[in-house]
Structure formats: structure tokens, C-alpha cells
Design goal:
This protein is of the alpha/beta class. It has an 8-stranded mixed sheet with strand order 7-6-8-3-9-13-4-14, sandwiched between helices. Strands 16-19-20-21 form a 4-stranded antiparallel sheet, with helices on one face. The chain has a 3-stranded mixed sheet with strand order 12-5-15, with no helix packed on it. Helix 3 packs antiparallel against helix 8. The longest helix has 31 residues.
């Protein structure tokens, strides 16, 4: 009989203590108080005191994942090489176990060095040469080969033993290896821990179980491996349903600037797939976001209303603001399309965590979420250096025991969502789908995976931004030219990574014969300043220059559509134009008046006015520190750590609930109108309103204020006041714009 007590005493219990030691060791020596590059130590101290229970259960989950991973990996070696011995200690297995974990760590560091950026650049700077050594000299597949051998050799030994002897023990060990792989593959942590803790009981009864039972369960486990494959093949085979609706694919990249596309800036290497797509599409060359922050920008696009109307004006809306979305008059595109027989999906990485936080109406939301509880799990998780590679897929692409890993801002591998994109296509036989894909790789910290982060960067650069660059809103210092060049090259590499994601999704459509049938839209939520002039880095704090509001809009109509001919449009357009345009494409009337324009009518010959003006406003200022020009041109209010609170009853969401703060934020916003030629910027300060007018064509960096000259500025000023009065209910007080009421109503 197998020594079950020995397994419990000499393997399972020591594994628990080893896991606990590793967890506490990395927690003590690898914990960061930086979030998105900002030190939040004081806030976390207060938070942990108020929500200790949340932190405690987060700790249990992360520790459980570590314990399970070490148990499953170690037990495979245990059963393969030591099961005949009466006593075998964990120390006998530890060397090969640590080699396995080390190889997975190396693979992960080469594949996603950004995940370990805080470890090497904030806490253990002495270790940076090791990271440089790995990324400069090794391909990640080299480490995968070693990992495969370390797992396949014991598995092969068990298979040979099973084939030669066909004992009950060998059958159980073979089944254990396969079950372990399944647990890793599907991320079943609770089931996995229960299974591991039950192993001593199973081992005790190996001989009591009939051989046919082992054969049956082995067959079931093997079938489970192939079940997803058969399911997808079946979906593909049965994809012969009625095709009454045109597939609509909306693809967006966070922070993607218009001028970073290859066909715009003349660099054919940066976005080859998008460049080829542009030749088949209608390209709107002067397209702008309404607000350069993700949550309000997407809400504007999907409702067709300005943020000043629906009240989602920042990244942390209160409950009474969130619940307005999806209600009349703020119905969304997914809601309307669902009523027309579509099934709507949204998928994406960490920047897509805004979609679960309001009722946008998607049939399925396949994105990470964001709240204080999830943030706590992520901060705990990021400290565990040996666990991160397993959770991010370095161990045979498996091991997502903690779903919050998808929300890591440093994990920019968007190709993992291409598989979900294909699954959505395959499980909808009639292809009546509206799919929104939102890529995060271009958002700071600009984290393209291997080999993309090497695409445009200097291999001889070893400064602080070799792999990533966070935005710290409290720091105004301009980096040196070498650093700026590296940051911009990282951004370009991220654009190329997004282009690869786009290519794979278009290939998926073509493989299924859907590309020619589909309406495909490519855009962005906002742009990004990259140290042009005095504009700094980031988005949302100001409206100067072209970088933060000027975004792509490429529309490919279905083959044979009357408007399908490629063309270039240079009249200013806005993200709120997509709502009426999509409804017009479906032949649907607007449910209520919207400020945007139907671009189909424009393409059919109904000319938009050449001097059409599009509106934008700033987001929230996260910091009240720094020497930025916009900090000197604003109405001050506290930083984000003082503005918000964690609302436990709303699943620990981070919200700005104080009505006074919300009104101040709305009143303080910079606003702009842009025509083809000019940009007017309204800047309220405590000393009065600053008006700026720039010639966009002659002065794209907005350095020479023309407002005191001529009538263009006052004319646009009157137009801006009228727009705010109509869509916000705002009033004019001298030169100030007083925002409409923010009282909780169902208007």
C-alpha cells in the first residue's frame, strides 16, 4: 500500500510551510505602495484599517494559489520518482521544483518585463542587470522548452510504468498528472485545493478501487482536455444560421493618437495592418474625443451624449451618476442593437475595467473589474515573484487561479483576448454580433509583450524607462532627451503591438468568411501627450495641442455597401457622432435628440458645414501638486486620494460621492471647441477666465494665443456658451460657465 501518511507528513505539510514562508518572504521584501507609479502608502494604511477583512481574504486567496501551484507541481515529481520509497522528504523534490519555478520566472520576465518593473526599479535596483541579461540574450521559448521537459519527463515515466505494469498505482498517478494539468488550465483553485487536501485519502484507497473505475475516470479526464476543441469545432460546423444582421466590430485602443498611425506619419513599420485596412476604409482624418478620460469618453460614444449631460465626467462616478446610463434618454448602442436581434460583447484588458461599472447594456462583459477589493488582491499578488509567472501563463499558458490578474496594468499582452474574440464568433451561428474590443497595450505604462517592446526601442538604453513608463501626475520635471526618445519609442512599440492584435482579429474574420460582410470601426478613447513642448505626459489634464483629443476613426463598410468606397474625410468629427451613425446604418431612428451628426448622411452628400466645431473637455485632475502649466491655470481642489471614498455597499467601488466635490470638478473643467482651422480653449481660474485661441494648422502645439485678435475667438465663445446651455443646462455668469444641476433626478 502506498505510504499515504508519509505523503501527508513529509510532503503535504512541509509544502504548506514552504508556501507560507515564500508568501511571507516576498510580502515583506517585495511589497510596493505604488499604484500606476504613484505612492499611495498613506491611503493604504487608512484603507487597511477600515477594510481589514477584505485584505485578509485577499491574502488567503493569493496564498491559496501559491500553495496549490507548489503542491501540484511538486506532487508530479513525487509520484514519478519517489512513490516506491517509504519516506521521501520535500527537500528531495525542492531542487527540481525550484528549477521549474525559476524557469517559469525567467520566461515571464522575458515575455512581460513590465510586470516586474516595480521590483527592479523601485525596490531591488541592484538586480536590474539580471533582467537586462535575460531580455537582451534569450528568447522566452527557450525557457518553455526547459519547463516542458521538466513536466513531460515525469509524465513520460508514469506513462511508461502504466503501460508496462498497468498497476492501480500507476493509473492513479497518471490520472493525477492529467487532473493537475486540467486544474492549471481552467484555474479551478477551490476545487484544486480540495483535491490536493484529499490526496492522502485517495492514496490510502488505491488498491480498494476497481481497475475499471480507473479506466473510466482516465477516459473522462482525457475527454475533458478535448471537450473545448470539439465544442468549438461543433460551433464552427453549425455556423449556418440565418445571417439577418451585419456583424459590427468596434475596435479601439486606449490612448491611440491619430498621428501615430503609419499611413499618417509615414512610418510603414509601426502599423502595417491598420495601414492596409485604411486603404479599404473611410478615414476621418480630423476626428476627436469629447473628453480624454476613458470612462466618460466611452460613455459619450455609447450614449451619443456629452458627459455634461449624462454626468459621467470622471473615472470615479457616484452611484446616482452610474445608474443614469442605460435609462432614457441615455440608452446605449448595445441596448438598442440587442433589441434588433444582436448579441453584444465587450472584451479587453485592464483599461476596459470601466465597462462593468455602469449599465452599458452588453449581453456579456468579458473584461476585468475595478474596485478597492480587486486592487488589494492585485497589490498582494504583485509581491509574489514566483506566483506571477504561473498566473500570467508562463507555465504552459495555464494557471489563472486569480481572475484579478487580468486587471494588471503592466500585463499588456492583448493577444490573449484574440482567442475570446474567436470564441464569440464561433458560438453565434447567425453572426448577429456587436463586438467591442478595447485594447490596453497603448495606455501607460506602455507594456507591449515580447518581442514588441524591442521593436523601436534602443537596445543600448539602460535608463529608468527601458520597459515601461508610468505617469506620475505630481511630477512636472521634463526627462532628458534620451529618456523622452525611449518613452516615445515604447509608445510606438505599443502601437505596433496593438496593430498585431488587430491583424489577428481581422484574420479571424476572414477565416470565417465574415470580413467582407462586417462593418468594422477602428478608433480610440483619447490620445496621449508625450512631452511635446510643455504638454507633459498623459491625458485628461489639459486640451493644448493635438495629441490628447485627436484620435483615429476608420470605418470599413460591408462589401457592396453603397458607401463602401474608400475615401478621406477632413471635416472635424466627434466620438458622439458614432451613435447616430450606427443607428442610421441599421435604419433606426434616434430614440431622442443627440448632439452628434449622422456621418452616413455626410457621406451620401449632405455636407457638414466646413466650419463645424467639435467639443471637448478635460477630465479630473488626479493630483494637486506639481509645476505643470495647467496646475497654474485651474481652480484647485484636493487630489484624488482625498476626493474619493471606498463604498463598501457598492462592492467596494471607488467613488467621488461628495456633491460639493463633484460640482467643483464640473465647474473647474477646461473646455474647447475645434474647427478645421481653430481651437478655442476656455480655462476658468480663481482670478478669472483665460481664453486661448490657436491656429491648428500653423500652430499645432498651441504656442501662440490669437484670442485677443479678430472675431474668431468671440464667435466660438458664443457658440461654446450656447452648446453648454443646451446640453448641460448651464448658465453664463460673466465669462464663467456655471454647470447645470447635479441633483439626482431621472431626467
Amino acid at each position: 500500500m502506498f505510504p499515504a501518511r508519509s505523503f501527508l507528513k513529509h510532503f503535504l505539510v512541509p509544502t504548506f510551510y514552504l508556501s507560507l514562508f515564500l508568501y511571507l518572504f516576498f510580502l515583506a521584501f517585495n511589497t510596493s505602495f505604488h499604484i500606476m507609479g504613484v505612492d499611495v502608502s498613506e491611503y493604504l494604511k487608512e484603507y487597511l484599517g477600515d477594510f481589514f477583512g477584505v485584505y485578509f481574504f485577499s491574502t488567503l486567496r493569493v496564498f491559496g494559489a501559491q500553495f496549490l501551484s507548489i503542491c501540484l507541481l511538486g506532487s508530479v515529481y513525487y509520484f514519478a520518482f519517489f512513490w516506491k520509497k517509504e519516506r521521501i522528504y520535500l527537500k528531495n523534490i525542492a531542487p527540481i521544483l525550484f528549477v521549474s519555478l525559476f524557469l517559469s520566472l525567467c520566461h515571464s520576465m522575458v515575455s512581460f518585463p513590465q510586470i516586474y518593473g516595480e521590483f527592479f526599479y523601485f525596490r531591488h535596483i541592484w538586480a536590474k542587470p539580471f533582467l537586462y541579461f535575460l531580455t537582451n540574450h534569450f528568447h522566452p521559448n527557450l525557457f518553455l522548452v526547459g519547463l516542458s521537459l521538466l513536466y513531460l519527463l515525469p509524465l513520460l515515466k508514469i506513462l511508461v510504468t502504466f503501460y508496462q505494469k498497468k498497476t492501480k498505482e500507476s493509473a492513479f498517478f497518471l490520472m493525477h498528472c492529467l487532473v493537475s494539468l486540467l486544474i492549471f488550465k481552467h484555474g479551478q483553485m477551490v476545487f484544486g485545493i480540495l483535491y490536493v487536501l484529499s490526496l492522502p485519502l485517495f492514496l490510502q484507497r488505491i488498491e480498494a478501487i476497481h481497475r475499471k473505475t480507473y479506466v473510466f475516470f482516465l477516459s473522462v479526464v482525457i475527454a475533458l482536455f478535448f471537450l473545448p476543441w470539439f465544442s468549438r469545432k461543433l460551433d464552427r460546423f453549425t455556423n449556418s444560421g440565418s445571417e439577418k444582421n451585419v456583424p459590427i466590430i468596434l475596435i479601439s485602443a486606449d490612448s491611440l493618437r491619430y498621428d501615430k498611425l503609419g499611413f499618417v506619419n509615414g512610418n510603414p513599420k509601426i502599423s502595417p495592418s491598420l495601414d492596409a485596412f485604411a486603404k479599404e476604409a473611410v478615414v476621418f482624418h480630423d476626428h476627436h474625443t469629447t473628453i480624454p478620460r476613458t470612462f466618460p469618453s466611452w460613455t459619450d460614444l455609447l450614449t451619443g451624449h456629452f458627459s455634461m449631460s449624462h454626468w459621467i465626467r470622471d473615472m470615479f462616478p457616484a452611484k446616482e451618476e452610474q445608474i443614469r446610463i442605460g435609462r432614457s434618454p441615455f440608452e446605449t448602442i448595445p441596448q438598442i442593437l440587442n433589441r434588433e436581434g444582436y448579441r453584444s460583447y465587450v472584451l479587453g484588458g485592464f483599461a476596459a475595467d470601466i465597462f462593468p461599472r455602469a449599465n452599458f447594456g452588453y449581453s456579456e462583459t468579458l473584461t476585468p473589474n475595478f474596485n478597492a477589493r480587486i486592487m488589494t488582491v492585485q497589490r498582494t499578488l504583485e509581491s509574489q515573484l514566483l506566483l506571477l509567472p504561473i498566473l500570467t501563463g508562463s507555465y504552459f499558458g495555464m494557471g489563472k487561479f486569480i481572475e484579478e490578474v487580468d486587471g494588471l496594468s503592466t500585463w499588456g499582452d492583448g493577444t490573449r483576448y484574440c482567442h475570446s474574440f474567436e470564441e464569440i464568433l464561433d458560438r453565434n451561428p447567425d453572426h448577429s454580433v456587436f463586438i467591442t474590443y478595447f485594447s490596453s497595450v497603448v495606455h501607460f505604462p506602455y507594456s507591449p509583450p515580447y518581442p514588441h517592446y524591442q521593436k523601436f526601442t534602443d537596445p543600448d538604453y539602460y535608463g529608468n524607462y527601458k520597459y515601461l513608463k508610468f505617469v506620475d501626475p505630481s511630477v512636472a520635471e521634463h526627462p532628458n532627451p534620451e529618456d523622452v526618445n525611449q518613452i516615445r519609442n515604447l509608445f510606438d512599440s505599443s502601437v505596433y503591438a496593438f496593430d498585431e492584435e488587430f491583424r489577428r482579429m481581422m484574420e479571424s474574420l476572414k477565416e470565417r468568411g465574415l470580413y467582407d460582410r462586417s462593418l468594422v470601426i477602428v478608433t480610440a478613447d483619447h490620445g496621449e501627450a508625450l512631452f511635446e513642448d510643455i504638454h507633459g505626459q498623459g491625458h485628461g489634464e489639459h486640451l493644448r495641442g493635438e495629441a490628447v483629443t485627436h484620435i483615429p476613426l476608420l470605418v470599413k463598410f460591408p462589401k457592396g455597401h453603397r458607401l463602401g468606397a474608400p475615401r478621406d474625410i477632413h471635416v472635424p468629427t466627434s466620438s458622439i457622432d458614432l451613435f447616430p451613425t450606427l443607428l442610421a446604418f441599421q435604419g433606426l431612428p434616434l430614440p431622442s435628440e443627440r448632439p452628434g451628426s449622422n456621418l452616413l448622411g455626410f457621406l451620401e452628400g449632405n455636407e457638414l458645414p466646413a466650419d463645424r466645431a467639435v467639443y471637448s473637455e478635460t477630465g479630473i485632475w488626479f493630483s494637486d501638486k506639481g509645476d505643470h502649466f495647467f496646475q497654474k491655470q485651474r481652480i484647485p481642489y484636493p487630489n484624488i486620494l482625498q476626493l474619493h471614498r471606498v463604498v463598501a455597499e457598492e462592492d467596494y467601488q471607488i467613488m467621488i460621492t461628495d456633491l460639493g466635490f463633484r460640482e467643483t470638478i464640473a465647474f473647474s473643467k477646461h473646455r474647447s471647441l475645434q474647427t478645421s482651422q481653430y481651437k478655442l480653449i476656455y480655462i476658468p481660474t480663481r482670478q478669472g477666465v483665460i481664453w486661448e485661441l490657436y491656429d491648428r494648422k500653423k500652430d499645432p502645439l498651441n504656442q501662440k494665443n490669437l484670442y485677443p485678435l479678430g472675431e474668431v475667438g468671440p464667435k466660438l465663445k458664443r457658440q461654446l456658451f450656447g452648446l453648454v446651455q443646451k446640453w448641460e443646462g448651464g448658465v453664463q455668469a460673466g465669462d464663467y460657465l456655471l454647470p447645470g444641476s447635479l441633483r439626482n433626478t431621472d431626467q
